[in-house]
């Protein structure tokens, strides 16, 4: 529930870390060649892994060496190599270190001139395993707070891989009213560059600012990352042909997207696309022996139909008595149009064949790394939640914009059946969701969906249109991005709790905390923990396992979620 969604609804009135594994302090400005942005690894396979760094201080094409060792002291070096970087790739270094053993922990470093990088730790995919621990993260708005959750990930006693579901960076500028800048001003975390990023240099500089953060560096150095972009790596709420936060004054949409993706590919530890493959095509899968297959999908840029919104897509109709009302049925017809899609035909075919191959090979769990919430989540019926008397009392005390917002909520979310809260999520694409559910059922996949974007923790039971269970979903809250976004309109109203109470698919939801998910898989069960940090506005914080959910591996599907 990001800023743009709040603005969209407001306008509805018209409608009705260890030192060896990453620095613990911010490095001083250095002269000459050095590694100011730490190290990272990602996209592990059984025999190889991507290793990443950036060489700062270089002025021309420069050779960088790398070492991969079996120990942190580099007494037993397994492989070494060289990579030449230059300004054309912003002096980033990305190598596909091959010839490694499966299921093995390695340590790596880079050398440029007289400088040596921090040491990173990584791990190849196993031939087989009976346990997998993932840290799942999303939504890190740099100005809004310290990356304490990344530090907590770096300090986990056990983590095999970090899965990042997007919004790794944000595009907004440093205006006083910009997203997150209340905290940004207080904490002196000012976006660089201080304007909304549009050019290639802008995107590169924003990535550089993020990678300079010591807590993010420590999390990258702790384990291999498997990432997808969401929207803010380019700009808010994109679809195939544009974006909510892109206008004609910001140039051609496809050129802007290409610049954002180029910087992303340069700065992230992700395997580059094959020749002839679009940079947008980030979907791929990772098999952890017979235990689990992690299937990362792309739902933003390749094929997404333009988002519907209540302001422009719900029309008013005249009634015989002279009054007007929302034409909700016409809107439902638009919403359920089978032509609305997220994946596109090529990705759908790849996804179906990947699921089928996974279950044909007796892989126990199929985990879908997905950007947005998949469960059906209807908006809250404010009339029932607050009651007419409280609404009557509140209205005169609220700012004008808040009154418009509350009025819009009352008009939209009191419908029967109720309308979705978030049209940017899977609720805005119900036909595509059913197509995916058909794949799960046809392949007998034990589907565990992990979702980001919403700045809220979720535990959801997924059902198809006939009400049959098809899988489970865990949604992750944000690393630092704002939670409790409705407080400015209705202070004290617990939206997440209210959504859990009225939506059958939502077992539980919580938007009180920042943090991540610790997902543990064994042959018998999935354990999902909402890991939280006590604050993002102080470097002194505590980490807690706020709530734990379990689903058993039942015959042909993931069992229902239960609260431990």
Describe the main β-sheet briefly.
Answer: 8 strands, mixed
CATH architecture of the largest domain: 4-Layer Sandwich
Radius of gyration: 23 Å
CATH class of the largest domain: Alpha Beta
Counted by DSSP, the helix tally is 14
| Shape summary | globular
How many domains? The number is: 2
Fill in the CATH topology of the largest domain.
Purple Acid Phosphatase, chain A, domain 2
Coarse structural class: alpha+beta
Tell me the total number of β-strands. 27
Q: Separation of termini?
A: 27 Å
User: Into which percent range does the helicity of residues fall?
Assistant: 10-25%
Percent strand equals 25-35%
How do the strands and helices of this protein lay out in sequence?
Elements: H1 3-10, E1 39-42, E2 49-54, E3 62-69, E4 77-85, E5 92-97, E6 105-112, E7 115-116, E8 120-123, E9 132-137, H2 148-154, E10 161-164, H3 181-187, H4 200-211, H5 214-222, E11 224-227, E12 238-239, E13 242-243, H6 253-267, E14 284-288, E15 292-296, H7 310-313, E16 316-318, E17 324-326, H8 328-335, H9 345-360, E18 365-370, H10 382-386, H11 388-394, H12 400-412, H13 430-443, E19 447-451, E20 457-463, E21 469-475, H14 495-502, E22 506-510, E23 514-521, E24 525-533, E25 543-554, E26 557-558, E27 562-563
Parallel strand pairs: 9-10, 10-11, 15-18, 18-19, 19-21
Antiparallel strand pairs: 1-2, 2-5, 3-4, 3-6, 6-7, 6-8, 9-23, 12-13, 14-15, 16-17, 20-21, 20-22, 23-24, 24-25, 25-26, 25-27
Domain PhoD-like phosphatase metallophosphatase: 134-529
Organism: Asticcacaulis endophyticus
Keywords: Signal
